[in-house]
Amino acid sequence: MKAIRTTVSLPPEQLNRLQCMTDTHGLSVAWLVRQAVSEFLERTGKQKEFHPLAPPAEDAR
Question: How many CA atoms lie within 13 A of 2 on its CB side?
Fold first, then answer.
């Protein structure tokens, strides 16, 4: 499957933290974002309902 390019705006603090992780682990920001999206979709896919404004569950912290 061919990937589709998208643009995401992040607050400077989040981008800085991602860049620190990429430097430490030799990864790209794109790879980290793809992983985060995959984990989010996996987690929310197991829920019967998705409430984007609800506080995170205790076990997700």
Answer: 2
CA 44 to chain centre: 12
pTM: 0.72
Cα separation, 18 vs 30, in Å, equals 10
Is 13 strand, coil or helix? helix
Q: How far apart are CA 12 and CA 18, in angstroms?
A: 10
Residue indicated by tokens 């076990």:
59
pLDDT for 9-46, tens place per residue?
999 999 999 999 999 999 999 999 999 999 988 888 87
